[in-house]
Specification:
Elements (H helix, E strand, L loop, with lengths): L1 E12 L1 H4 L6 H4 L11 E10 L2 E5 L13 E4 L6 H6 L8 E6 L4 H4 L9 E4 H7 L2 H9 L11 E3 L12 E3 L6 E5 L8 E6 L5 E6 L5 H6 L9 H17 L2 E5 L5 H7 L10
Parallel strand pairs: 3-5, 5-6, 6-7, 11-12
Antiparallel strand pairs: 1-2, 1-4, 2-3, 8-9, 9-10, 10-11
Length: 269
C-alpha cells in the first residue's frame, strides 16, 4: 500500500475558526473582524492498493470564492490534475473517490474526475437540508457541477473504537469510519499500512493534531458535544492502535505521513 498527499493550494482561516470561543460567540466570531492564520494546506489523498487507485477527497479549485472566515489561494496549476501528476499518478487510473464530507475544499476537484464518488448517506442527507443549502447560497459556495455521489452506508459494525464503519476493500485494509462533528455525516478513512499501522485520513475531523489532543470542537459543527465525543473516540482508537493521524489542513500531516509518526500511546492532552 502507498499513500500520497496531494496538495491543492492553501487556505487562510480566521483565528476564531481554529480557536473558537464558547457559547454564542463560537460561530458569530467567524463573521467579525479578527486575525488570520498562516496559509494552511488543502490536502486530499491518493491510495495505491492491490492494483487499484482510490482518492480520498478531491481538493479545491482556482474558482473557489473567499468567505468571511476563509481566504483561498489556489492556482490552476495546483488543482487535482497537477497535484496527482506530481506524485507520478494519473487521474485516468482513479477507480473511485471517497468524500469525507461535502464542503467545497474537499469536493470541488470532482470536476476533474470521471470515476464514481461516494459520500456517507448521513452527510448527503445533511447537505440537502435547508440550513446548509441557504448557507451555500449566501456564501456563494455551490456544490460542483454534476455533484451526485453514491451513498455510502456505514453498516459494517465496529472498527476498533469506532462504532460505525464500512470496509472499502475486500481485504478490510481500507475502512471508512464515522467521525461526526465538523459536519453531522463526516467520515474519516483508515488505511492499515504494510507495517500494520493505522493511517487515518481525517478530513476535517480536526484541523490539526493539536486540536485533537486539546479535545476542542471547531467553530463550524452544529453540535460541539458530538464533536468532542468524536475526538475522544479518535484518541481512544489511537491509544489501542498506533495511528498516523492526518487532517487535511494540518501543515505537519505530510511530515507525519513520510515519517510514519504515530499518535499511539501519546494520545493524552
Amino acid at each position: 500500500m502507498r499513500i500520497h498527499a496531494l496538495t491543492t493550494g492553501t487556505v487562510r482561516v480566521k483565528h476564531s475558526f481554529l480557536f473558537p470561543s464558547s457559547g454564542v460567540r463560537r460561530q458569530l466570531d467567524l463573521f467579525l473582524p479578527g486575525p488570520w492564520s498562516h496559509p494552511l494546506p488543502i490536502h486530499c489523498w491518493a491510495i495505491e492498493h492491490d492494483d487499484r487507485l482510490m482518492l480520498v477527497d478531491s481538493g479545491e479549485t482556482a474558482t473557489a470564492r473567499n468567505i468571511p472566515f476563509a481566504r483561498f489561494e489556489v492556482a490552476g496549476e495546483q488543482e487535482l490534475p497537477a497535484a496527482i501528476a506530481a506524485v507520478g499518478l494519473s487521474l485516468d487510473d482513479v477507480a473511485e473517490v471517497v468524500l469525507t464530507h461535502h464542503h467545497g475544499d474537499h469536493v470541488d476537484g470532482l470536476v476533474h474526475v470521471r470515476a464514481p464518488a461516494q459520500i456517507n448517506d448521513a452527510e448527503l442527507r445533511f447537505a440537502q437540508t435547508a440550513f446548509p443549502r441557504v448557507m451555500r447560497r449566501i456564501l456563494r459556495q455551490p456544490l460542483p457541477p454534476g455533484f451526485a455521489p453514491q451513498q455510502l452506508a456505514l453498516d459494517g459494525g465496529r472498527f476498533g473504537e469506532f462504532p460505525h464503519s464500512r470496509a472499502l476493500t475486500d481485504d478490510g485494509r481500507i475502512v471508512a469510519v464515522a467521525t461526526p462533528g465538523h459536519t453531522p455525516g463526516h467520515i474519516s478513512v483508515i488505511c492499515i499500512d504494510d507495517a500494520g499501522r493505522h493511517v487515518m485520513l481525517a478530513g476535517d475531523a480536526t484541523d490539526t493534531l493539536e486540536q485533537l489532543h486539546a479535545r476542542r470542537a471547531d467553530a463550524i459543527g452544529p453540535d460541539p458535544k458530538e464533536h468532542v465525543a468524536t475526538l475522544e473516540t479518535i484518541l481512544a482508537h489511537c491509544a489501542q492502535h498506533p495511528t498516523v493521524y492526518l487532517p487535511s489542513h494540518d501543515p505537519e500531516s505530510v511530515k507525519r505521513l513520510a515519517g510514519a509518526i504515530t499518535v499511539g500511546a501519546h494520545a493524552g492532552p
